[in-house]
Design brief:
The chain is built from two helices and no strands. By secondary structure, the chain is an all-alpha fold.
Length: about 70
């Protein structure tokens, strides 16, 4: 039995979605007291920022193939 994968066109870029997610979780973290939960949420925000930068780099016109 084949699995059917639903596909849809994203209206915003991956970079923009990652940036929005990072901002959203940072706002949530600001409402929390310092501690493990806040640290974990901030880690997710940093990971989203890194992913956005990697996506930007991977899609840049100056990206050169490895030699």
């Amino acid at each position: 039995m084949a699995t059917i994968r639903r596909r849809f066109k994203q209206t915003t870029s991956l970079k923009d979605r990652l940036a929005a997610f990072a901002n959203e979780v940072r706002e949530k973290a600001e409402q929390l007291a310092p501690g493990l939960e806040r640290d974990e949420i901030m880690k997710k925000a940093r990971q989203a920022d890194v992913a956005a930068h990697i996506d930007e780099w991977a899609n840049s016109s100056g990206l050169q193939p490895p030699k």
